[in-house]
Design a protein that fits this description.
Elements (H helix, E strand, L loop, with lengths): L12 E5 L4 E9 L2 E9 L1 H11 L3 E9 H10 L8 E4 L5 E5 L6 E6 L6 H15 L4 E5 L10 H12 L3 E5 L2 H10 L1 E7 H6 L8 H14 L1 E7 L5 E5 L2 E6 L11 H15 L3 H15 L10 H7 L4 E4 L4
Parallel strand pairs: 1-4, 1-8, 2-6, 4-5, 8-9, 9-10, 10-11
Antiparallel strand pairs: 2-3, 6-7, 11-12, 12-13, 13-14
């Protein structure tokens, strides 16, 4: 089965819960000429972007407000707008300067806390879109902390009650709340695993212990990315170690979001374990070769997939 082949089914929608989406301004220098680039940004947006590359129809469920919200609507282009929730609170924004080669943060303006009316509408929009999607991705708030963690428990519980497969990429208090609601498949990094207290270290044996802990607390399947060492996954009763070819890094950011999107796509089309993990690792590996976060080339991803090594491991 080709994991990134075109799908003739109309059921290609994947809802993405994203309480915070930003407008980014990046200054770059190309051939000696300064350039300014404006983009929609944030974890949910980056996941949605990769889903589009893979052939899905993402529905970004996110609040939009203020001048930055007006800009955000325009920057979303052809992406579905039926999950957007109008609010009076401006979307967050940031300015980065990369003209010297390194990323320098010039300004960061986070989103303010969402009021209860906007939160109610965001949850309703997510459930309305999510109940019509076989898979829903649950993303964090980009460190804005603009919603209470308890919202994640409610959203995860209600989506699963409605029959949706939930794919979560969370950490900290947001993750703990989502685990209480139940997560079908959790993706996180080994650094987040240690920081959250689930694992004593990023050593492989400790990562295995951390995954077991996450499963006991409410995660079904778990995929932990371990940087250049690949990833470790527990899917059903099987455990795997995944290794992709080492690529020259242009920008490491966004690789995790590419992996999350690929896991969601794979679950939607019903990939088996090996195909699912090859696609996820291949999409992540290729993302680091590009400037665009969670962007990719479908043909390149397709060629990378068979190069990813997936081996079964024993936890005993």
């Amino acid at each position: 089965m080709n994991p990134v082949s075109s799908d003739s089914s109309s059921d290609t929608e994947i809802a993405v819960f994203a309480p915070s989406t930003h407008v980014s301004v990046t200054l770059e220098r190309n051939a000696g000429v300064d350039e300014m680039h404006l983009h929609a940004a944030g974890q949910g947006l980056w996941v949605a972007r990769m889903l589009t590359v893979l052939g899905d129809d993402p529905i970004l469920c996110t609040p939009v407000g203020g001048e930055t919200g007006v800009a955000l609507r325009a920057l979303l282009g052809d992406m579905s707008t039926k999950g957007l929730v109008a609010c009076s609170i401006p979307n967050g924004s940031y300015i980065h300067d990369r003209r010297a080669g390194e990323r320098e943060v010039i300004a960061t303006l986070p989103s303010a806390n969402l009021d209860r009316h906007v939160i109610d509408e965001l949850i309703s929009a997510t459930l309305a879109c999510g109940f019509g999607s076989p898979v829903v991705v649950i993303c964090g708030s980009n460190l804005d902390a603009n919603i209470e963690p308890a919202i994640y428990e409610s959203v995860c519980h209600n989506l699963r009650a409605g029959g949706s497969i939930t794919i979560a990429d969370l950490s900290g208090d947001d993750l703990r709340a989502a685990l209480a609601g139940g997560i079908s498949l959790l993706k996180m990094s080994d650094e987040e695993l240690v920081a959250g207290g689930y694992s004593a270290s990023d050593d492989a044996d400790d990562v295995l212990v951390g995954i077991e802990s996450l499963r006991k607390q409410g995660a079904g399947d778990v995929v932990v990315s371990c940087g250049e060492r690949g990833s470790i996954a527990a899917l059903g009763q099987a455990w795997y170690r995944v290794t992709a070819p080492s690529m020259s890094v242009t920008d490491h950011r966004g690789a995790g979001d590419s992996m999350t999107a690929a896991l969601a796509h794979g679950r939607r089309v019903g990939l088996g374990d090996v195909d699912l993990l090859q696609l996820a690792a291949g999409a992540a590996a290729l993302n680091v070769t590009r400037h665009g976060l969670a962007s990719g080339n479908l043909a390149a991803i397709s060629r990378m997939v068979p190069l990813v090594k997936v081996e079964a491991i024993s936890t005993r």
